[in-house]
Amino acid sequence: MAYPHTETHVKIYALGDICQVDGTWKKSECRGGLGLYYFNTNTLEKLMGRCNLRRGISPPHAELEALIWAMQCMLNTGKLTMVFQMDYSDVVKMVSKPKKWSAFSLLLEEVDRCKRRFNSFSIMQIPMTENTKANNLAQNARALLSDVYYVHSLFQQFGFPSYFRDRGS
């Protein structure tokens, strides 16, 4: 007799260093929120971060600010081969063809400056349902009344890096 089982399917859109990014914006609120969720599919290393700032002009501005912030965070942590994933399709288009988006030229120039510092850079759109961690971080940051800015490492077991866990095995 066969027993029913549950399978979990995780969609992997890329391999290696991946940084999921989101920016949140609400016209009725004075702050915007930025969120990032980094993971490496090979080492299982994870980082998460959130930041809030004065609300920008529009949702696309918030998304671009989130991308710039995430790029700077990855560069500051030495992650130079990166796939960025966002659920906001216009930002992916803006980065691919910046000349068509002149209203965002200042932010796109900063994206380009950051891009040139990576050994390998790519950006891709993912479904909103696959970007929930970055989205939740951004929404939580936006809701805070005080300034918040952090990027934090997540360890798999007991809060220790794998090289401590694997010693003495």
Features:
alpha/beta, globular, disordered C terminus, single chain, 169 residues, six-stranded mixed β-sheet
List the helices and strands and how they pair.
Layout: E1 17-24, E2 31-40, E3 46-54, H1 59-76, E4 81-86, H2 89-96, H3 105-115, E5 120-125, H4 132-143, E6 149-154, H5 162-165
Parallel strand pairs: 1-4, 4-5
Antiparallel strand pairs: 1-2, 2-3, 3-6
**In which order are the strands of the major sheet placed?**
5-4-1-2-3-6
Query: Would you state the CATH class?
Result: Alpha Beta
Q: Could you say what the CATH topology is called?
A: Nucleotidyltransferase, domain 5
Question: H/E series, N to C?
Answer: EEEHEHHEHEH
CATH superfamily: Ribonuclease H-like superfamily/Ribonuclease H
Which structural class matches the secondary elements? alpha/beta
Largest sheet: 6 strands, mixed
Count of folded domains = 1
Total DSSP E strands: 6
Protein name: RNase H type-1 domain-containing protein
GO molecular function: nucleic acid binding; RNA-DNA hybrid ribonuclease activity
InterPro entries: RNase_H-like_dom_plant, RNaseH-like_sf, RNaseH_domain, RNaseH_sf
Domain RNase H type-1: 21-141
